[in-house]
Design a protein that fits this description.
By secondary structure, this protein is mainly alpha-helical. It has one domain: Orthogonal Bundle (Tetracycline Repressor, domain 2), CATH 1.10.357.10. The chain is 70% helix and 0% strand. It contains nine helices and no strands. Helix 5 runs parallel beside helix 8 and helix 7 packs across helix 8. It is globular, with a radius of gyration of 23 Å. It starts with 14 loop residues before the first helix and ends in a 9-residue tail after the last helix. The relative contact order is 0.08.
């Protein structure tokens, strides 16, 4: 807002504005630094797991002081939780958002499947799905903040699958009595098996088998053709 033409100062000028601008700039720089640190931390987790991540290991990786890292993350647990959220953010950006931009129904399910395949094997900065890695590490760690955040993220993912399957039912592409929760379970089961076969067993046929299993899942859940 500007004052009238009586010579008063315009909003956005003066010492108060300069202090606010400086503070905003420092906050933006701090957030950029934090994101850069998390990007390096994701790489460490990809190699040694969440429990292998520590302030000391990250300090060595980034060549930052431990005290500097503590300014951003007050504990190892807070750092692990920050990495988990960064992984979730990437998953939303790379898997879920492109699918939600696709046509609802089977087309959206196909994008979800393709993007999840890419997430598992197509990212140069990580090795496999870091959500699944966390699931294995924190399976027996009740009430751990990373475990609780992961559980919520996986529930959200299942909800995306269930709703996408329901939309395919509404479009007449999947049968009306489809059990959405079972469909989501089978959908994710294919991808989990793919990660094991591709990543651990180095099965050269893993991707082909995963695609065949997905097509079979769709086919057996299509509406029955009416006999005239």
């Amino acid at each position: 807002m500007q004052r009238g033409s009586d010579g008063g100062r315009k909003a956005g000028s003066g010492p108060g504005h300069r202090r606010a601008s400086g503070r905003d700039g420092r906050l933006a720089k701090g957030e950029a630094t934090r994101r850069a640190i998390l990007a390096r931390a994701v790489g460490i987790v990809s190699r040694v797991g969440y429990e292998g991540l520590s302030i000391g290991a990250l300090a060595e990786e980034t060549r930052l002081s431990k005290s500097g890292l503590f300014a951003h993350f007050k504990s190892k647990e807070a750092l692990q939780l920050g990495v988990m959220q960064e992984v979730i953010n990437r998953y939303i950006e790379r898997v879920i958002q492109p699918a939600l931009a696709a046509r609802r129904g089977e087309a959206r399910l196909r994008v979800l499947f393709e993007r999840k395949l890419q997430w598992i094997c197509g990212l140069s900065e990580t090795r496999g799905c870091l959500l699944q890695k966390a699931a294995l590490e924190y399976d027996n760690r009740p009430h751990h903040p990373v475990r609780e955040r992961l559980i919520q993220a996986l529930r959200d993912w299942q909800e995306v699958l269930v709703r996408s399957a329901a939309a395919a039912v509404e479009e007449g592409e999947l049968r009306a009595d489809l059990d959405g929760a079972q469909f989501a379970y089978d959908f994710d089961g294919i991808l989990m098996m793919y990660q094991q076969a591709h990543g651990l067993m180095r099965d050269r046929n893993a991707e082909e088998r995963a695609r065949r299993a997905f097509e079979s899942l769709l086919e057996r859940n299509r509406p029955l053709q009416r006999v005239h």
